[in-house]
Design goal:
This protein has 327 residues and is mainly α. It has 14 helices and two strands.
């Protein structure tokens, strides 16, 4: 044996057998068949995901980097072609005061509406899961029922309750001496928030109830044996254990708030205070289908998606950092 071979050989401890290398286990036919079956189940999802999610995002990114150039006097010629514009559409969107004001409006909307909705959903979930609650099935269905109403229909229904002259709420307020205008410039945002809270509180309540169902009943029993009352059980056991569901519903609510569109779009003919830049989504829609400027609308849609991702991941990181500090 040469010196190089001896130098590469693994040292052997005296009185101890040399370690043996385990032979690599070859995949059996059953494992290969299972892998192919799993791929058959996953591939349809990946195809639909790519077609309905990745492809539209890629197309929006492509559209946001181009602009339409028209020929002829004042651009009124019969020919038009797309030209590369770089980040000009993004600069145009960020310099639009109405688009930026829409972002500020939905952020204020979310800062008030999201905590209110989640507090109501949490209170309803804890109430329906308490031992003394009666008629749980009926109330659970009743609270969830508004979520089954499409947003457009819900906005139309509430629009009848907001319009002066036909609204019973306005008539009752007038009889009490209150001058109420739900669709005024200072009130219309909160009128829309009322619609969203009415519609989505029940959905978030069911998510929280599903999390409460996963809590072992032995924890509640042990707490009662230790003398804890219903409030102490809810505060020290139920609320900490439904924290993942609260985080999930908060992220969904942040994304949904930035996508606010149906409610202001339906109420727009009824309220002069709602213009085309009331929300970022409504502004992008107006740019695309009213102003015939699809490229700027695509840039605004990409910016809206980036802000939604940034706020969502920022919230998740904030919550994760606090959890680590507690641990």
């Amino acid at each position: 044996m040469s010196r190089d071979t001896l130098s590469r050989a693994a040292p052997v401890t005296p009185g101890r057998p040399a370690p043996r290398r385990r032979p690599r286990r070859r995949a059996t036919r059953t494992e290969a068949r299972n892998a192919r079956a799993a791929a058959c189940f996953v591939l349809p999802f990946l195809a639909v995901f790519g077609l309905c999610f990745l492809a539209p995002i890629g197309y929006a990114l492509h559209q946001s980097l181009y602009t339409t150039e028209r020929t002829g006097p004042l651009g009124l010629g019969g020919r038009e072609h797309e030209a590369f514009a770089g980040l000009a559409n993004y600069a145009h969107a960020l310099s639009d005061g109405r688009f930026l004001a829409g972002f500020g409006r939905v952020l204020l909307f979310g800062a008030v509406q999201i905590p209110l909705m989640l507090v109501l959903a949490t209170a309803l979930a804890l109430l329906l899961e308490s031992a003394g609650a009666r008629g749980v099935t009926f109330f659970r269905t009743a609270f969830f029922l508004p979520y089954g109403v499409p947003g457009v229909i819900a906005s139309i229904l509430w629009g009848f309750l907001y319009v002066p002259g036909i609204s019973p709420l306005v008539k009752i307020a007038g009889a009490l001496g209150w001058d109420v205008d739900f669709l005024s410039r200072g009130s219309v945002l909160w009128a829309i928030a009322n619609i969203v809270v009415w519609q989505f509180t029940g959905y978030n309540m069911l998510v929280l109830i599903a999390q409460l169902k996963a809590v072992p009943g032995e924890l509640y029993e042990a707490a009662r044996i230790d003398g804890a009352n219903a409030w102490q059980v809810a505060r020290h056991i139920k609320l900490p254990l439904i924290r993942p569901a609260l985080v999930l519903t908060t992220v969904f609510s942040i994304i949904g708030t930035l996508q606010l569109f149906a409610e202001p779009m339906v109420l727009r003919p009824l309220a002069s205070s709602i213009d085309s830049g009331f929300t970022p989504n409504l502004h992008a829609y107006s740019e695309a289908f009213v102003g015939n400027n699809q490229h700027v609308a695509a840039a605004e849609a990409v910016l809206l998606a980036l802000v939604a991702c940034g706020l969502s991941f920022g919230f998740l990181r904030l919550v994760g950092g606090r959890a680590k500090d507690r641990g």
